[in-house]
Amino acid sequence: MNRKTFCAAAALLLAGTSPMASAQDATPAPQPTAPGIRWQKEVPAIASAEWTGARLADGQPDVSGFWSNTISNHSNFTDPQAGPPGEPSAAAKLPRDQRAPSRVSDPGDGQIPYLPAARALQEDFAKNFPNPVKPRYIEPLARCAPAGVPKSFMWHGYEVRQYPGYVVFLFDSGTRIIRLDGSPHLSPEIKLWNGDSRGHWEGNTLVVDTRNNNGKALFGRYGDFMSENATVAERFIFDADGKRFNYVATFTDPTVYSRPWTATIPARRYTVADKPDGWHFDVKPVNAPGRPLQYEHYERICAENNGPFGGGAVGVPSDGAVIDR
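^ thats the sequence. predicted structure below, dont judge the formating
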């Protein structure tokens, strides 16, 4: 059991729960390949509806497994495939309609509706990102901080585990637990990198109310952000065959935005039929001879805050010795 598995299980054992396992395919492990990260331009339309797929023992739709976003990493929130500040991608030279759309699905112009002072802060970060002469111009994720909402859904693949009364996300940068028990939110004075989440299922849609954000996690390398006053209404809308979902989140923060706005981030599922690729399906086979094939994510140094950016967290082998002993 690696540290991610232990932490998720320990947190939920406090509530007297145990994980609900899905059936595992016994296919032999494919050999890892590195064909390059493949991104798509389209965001599929997935409507909220009744769930017709498999369910777990407590009635939850079974969406456990490995997932990853399909259009780009967190370099650019509103032009996902154009690259980070000062480092445009090859796709940035293409006409705008030949790249993936903005993650901002409302308003229709694809831009976050900042108040003037908040827009000035975001633009200042973007201008200084390529040459960060002050600590505030270094993205928190680069310093091993949790990615937060919504960036966790754009940075590497992640795993969803389900327990009675909980949905757990195991991200590359930490763990997020969504309680389904109807319990009240934490005190407003408590602020967290991933916020405090309460959810319930409506057919094929996991509906989540997230608040208590600490306002420190940026959305990406252009410095888009929300404050500690924000609330996020999240909808995880799964398709009928359980192979894709759209993360649709509405952000409300009168201290930063002129109006509520909505982001849409598409994701697809990865299974033993897929080959590990070092990004979307960033996994290793579990060392369990004679048992059906299972995968787990790497335990990464940044998830533990064990090393600074540029001084060990970059270039360290994920499954080998850090130094030659």
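The longest strand covers residues 261-270.
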